[in-house]
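Quick one - inputs below.
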Amino acid sequence: DAGVTQSPTHLIKTRGQHVTLRCSPISGHKSVSWYQQVLGQGPQFIFQYYEKEERGRGNFPDRFSARQFPNYSSELNVNALLLGDSALYLCASSLAGGGGPQFFGPGTRLTVL
Amino acid sequence: AQRVTQPEKLLSVFKGAPVELKCNYSYSGSPELFWYVQYSRQRLQLLLRHISRESIKGFTADLNKGETSFHLKKPFAQEEDSAMYYCALSPYNNNDMRFGAGTRLTVKP
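Output:
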């Protein structure tokens, strides 16, 4: 098993653009969570999806949205990009939606110019 | 609100010395506590969770509810322990995980 995979690995966008990040969970895992990690800080929780439904949302603006597909993969969308959105975006999967360890992907490095 | 504090950004010890990485949390309910580690050029990976009460790579962590702490300890540090360590908390039965800012541990030869 390759573990959690994310694409793309790196991305450069300009202010005002839109971006879509993708994540495939570990086989058998039904929950996907998204995190933003700014340099020098720990990951910050953005969303959790379980069985295609949003189960949790962190303190992020409505420009951030996500969805989960029937195969449990997930997309994170960010509209109207700001310079401050530059960060490493991490996806984590877990067996179920109710706590327990999460397994992280390698992340997507987003740079907004 | 749930919060995790790791007071040391950097920690440096010599090989063979004991090491303790501090983690304090605030949460009114029953939390699950975790330690995650990130070695150079690798992804974030789970090291310990408090309910397992196990020792991984010689590391242990005890949840102290009175002091709201979950410090990570190892009696004899090895050079390969050099990494970034994150303490994390999630409410019981919930995947909203909050991370501390992390502590970079360097073990010198």
